[in-house]
Amino acid sequence: MVIVPQKILVGIGALGRVLLTLLMVLPVITGCVDFGLNGGGSGDRDDVVTNNLESQDVQIVTSDTQVGHPLKLSVAITAAEGVTDVPVSFYLLNKSEFDAAEDLSDTSASSNSLQRSPTGTDEDPDQFAQHLLCSETCDLETGDNECVIECAVPEGTPPGEYYVIAHVDPSDVIDETDDDNTPDQHQDMDSISGVITVSGEHMNTPDIVLENVILDRSSVLLENEVVDYIPGDPYPPEPSEPAVEDFGATAIIMISGLQDISNIPLTMCLEVPGMGCEPLEIWNSGTSDYEFQHMVDTISPGEPTSVQLGVHIPDDLRALIENEMIGSDDNTLNLKVSIDKDDDIIEHEASMEGEGRDHNNVIVTELAIEIPTDSDPLHILRRDAVGMRSAVTPYSSGAALYFSKEYNKMFESSYFGTGVRFSALASLDTNGAIGHVVGRVPITMFGSTFDFAKFEAYGQATPHAVEDSGFDLDLLFAGQTLYSKSGDAGFSWDKDWSVSKSKGYETLFWLGIVPMIVSAEATGTLGFVVDVSIADDFITSAAPYVSVGSSVTAEISFLLASGGITADMTLISDTFTGDASAGMTLQDSGGDLTLIGTLNEGIYNELEGPTGKVSLWAKYKNGVKWCKSWGVPYPCGLKSHKYSTTIVNWSSFSRTDTILSKTQSTSFPVY
How many domains does the chain have? Predict the structure, then answer.
């Protein structure tokens, strides 16, 4: 009898933090500023200005206008040349006060109007109440355009009838041949405005909107990936462990009105032919268990909230779906996500012409269901004589034991995203024992994605062919190899290593009519602990981990503007552990070799998802003071306005899983 025990012990780590900072650069008002926009800028201008913007015909899309609730507007804009990121502001002018106001059509009255209060008092009867409704940006093509904007009627707007006026490029960011036709002051009132009646009846009645649902994968494998397979057993093999989590999803929820809402019920179901919509289980971080209904914590108006969901298909439903779909040409099912499906929360469903909002609590998307068949191979990585890894499928007839599990979780929002994608594998067959842990932690900032950490640890012990035994380790940051190590039979190594790295991105973000350069920087520490000895029993233990925090910076170079940020956001903290071990004995019976061994695999994960939020604000001078001349309004002065928005708000998500814990013994001939 020949005994060839071998050992490899590996621990890998990656610790990271994302630094997202907001730097407000207050402008020195000594001249004009060039924003570097396509066709715009009020600094170093071309000698010949050829572009011109002309606006009129404001249309009101929303039929029911309530304080705190969305109002959808459109304005017709003609552009001599195409230009992007054109600021557009909408204003409310009290209709009865405007109609009754003195017409300042004479020169002296027009000049004096610059000194008048824009709010209107008994002592100043020719003035009228006016409010800045909202400011956004539009991209314009050469010729006629329609700019459509949805915004909430601001808190504090008194109920009443209002003219709605659109002012294109109110701060003169775009160079134009004529700055007096946005709106055209030579048109009549009906041509440049719309009329709405603002009500406060439902300002404290919320409207909940399910904005989007993002799945972290497009398909789900019903058969568990953890299998025990011995030659001669039925194929495909039966799952040896119950699934921990089938897939993840991010639900983005918005509410309108003036009040916060708490305890919003969210449910998910799969529409199975002939069975209706069967409920799915959703992970509850507070109870560390699955439930058929997830209660969303408090959401504030106007803040897009990303709710992280871990979704499980119940075992009895798995069997029913498999029986229903085997042999079917269509492997997709409708996944329905609903908030407040039983109408427990009284809502004000704002009505929009041609775009009803009474069904904004449900989103239906497709989910592909994969069911293994006899032709589906099992996959495993093999290491050849020169150390190259490659996939070998299907298994050879001498395959004995194979344990494997993937763990994927992604978190999404409009500007930031992160997640983990890990897998661990252990096998024992005619190629000996193999342990393999691989994974990455992607980070997304402003549409750009990079791997904050990417790592792989691979060990193989082959008693009857020691030249195939060996170990490989690779650790990368943003595509750059930070550490690489390998060894063959007899290799031993003990190492504790770490390094700090950073990587940043920036984007142009418009807050109202103020352009802000928002920068995000990922800063973190990556590391590993490794103890390798190709002797004794075969062991691989890899435990990669990552922790990512955040803060935000932005630069404002805008005439008469200042700004700031409120940011308290942690992106992700995760530790993934894959433990594989095998005790092997090579028995020689008259020249016939038999490999006798026991394979152990343990896979564990601890996850804390994103929490916190990031909000921006800017204070700037805007043309919100309007006067009346020749029966129409015209901008006659500047007034300070503060504008704020929340760009991301995460709900909390956490879970600790024993994904797999399995031990099995076997023996087989070695040729």
Answer: 1
